[in-house]
Amino acid sequence: MLTDSHCHLASHRFPADEVGALVGRARDAGVRRIVTLATGLGDLDANLAVAAAHEGVHACLGIHPCDVHKAPDDAPEQVAARLANPLVCGVGETGLDYFHPAPEGWETGHFRARQREFLDAHFAIAEAAGLNLVIHTRDREGDLSLQEAIEIYRPHADKVRAVFHCFVNNFKNAARILDLGGLVSFGGVATFKNAADVLELTTRLPEGSFMLETDAPYLAPHPHRGQRNEPAFTKVIAQRIAEVRDDSLDSLAEHTSRTASLFFRFRDN
After folding, report:
1. Alpha-carbon distance 89 to 60, whole Å?
2. Phi-psi label, residue 95: left if phi above 0, alpha if psi -120 to 50, beta otherwise
3. What is the pLDDT of residues 204-251, one digit of tens each?
4. Per the count of CB atoms within 10 A, which of 91, 200, 255, 261 is most buried?
5. What's the CATH number where 111 sits?
6. What are the contacts of 107-111 at 24+ separation with CB within 8 A?
7. Does residue 189 sit within a domain?
8. Is residue 269 part of a domain?
């Protein structure tokens, strides 16, 4: 059994009447659990509705760092109000995005400060709800967003575990996350021909330290790169990582799904 630990089934790129077929194709590919993540107040309920409608689909709720300028100050509290729903398995996607420029009317320093405030607030609501956290980091150059996210994580690490999704950094920084009790997850980038360092990193991490994801509809794996991604492609990612780890697909599927189950503590629907 494979688990897609991160996708966005409520995305506008997935018409609502197509989601059933997407979930069906995933099941046919051996993907039996799917985590769909909200990115703003506008799609919290949409992701819950998708999870309610499809067996094996669970939801994480949060405010993406690129949306914090549009979110009211009480947005984390609005997220918190929905976390008792048994379909919710985590908080996120939240984090720090220093890749995209500040939106019109915002100074870069203020925009990044709001992202940091929201990330810290997401840790607080996750702790109160007894849930773990999904973190996005992205930089145009360097890794400042990752470093700052790790430091925000540090004082919360004894109460909340965090997964740094779509991880494309180095072993040293992966080890810093693992030392705090966190995880990383790998998606389609690990299959890209120009990302051999990410694929090599997957060979250095032990079982129980990473999960698989698609980030669908984004970042489709090779040979589907450039197409719309979907949860069924978790199998393509798993096959490539299993190959370089000298592991079997069944073994990789089993231990990454077990890791996802421990992290998200799924309450099966």
Report:
1. 6
2. left
3. 999 999 999 999 999 999 999 999 999 999 999 999 999 999 999 999
4. 91
5. 3.20.20.140
6. 111/68, 111/69
7. yes
8. no
